[in-house]
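This protein record is not my work; I was only asked to verify it. Where you disagree with what is written, explain briefly why. This is what I was given:
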Amino acid sequence: MNGADEEVERVSDALNEVDRIPDREARVRARNQVLALQAKKTKEWHKERRELVLEMRAETPPVPIRKIAERLGMSAGVVQDIVRGHSGAWKDRPARMGQAEEQRDDG
């Protein structure tokens, strides 16, 4: 296990400890604190992830999407979304040409 894996395991252990807080109010209060911190960190972490993916694609020759996904431990689809500039829920994605008409016919 490398240093990064150990840190992730430590975070996971800490989250499990929050779940073991016996007093329900205290447990919910602690979870709210974690959720607030996570929301802030998520923005920062997504920004850094996006920057790294785009840097890897800008290399000469560009690192392939599948290789980036493998190296960063994410799906090729997420890497592709980042490269295309998409973020957010699937329902908010722009439809491909012709796809919008198909969806109208299905609905």
Remarks:
- Helices lie at 3-19, 24-58, 65-72, 76-84, 99-106.
- Residues 101-107 have pLDDT under 50 and may be disordered.
- The radius of gyration is 19 Å.
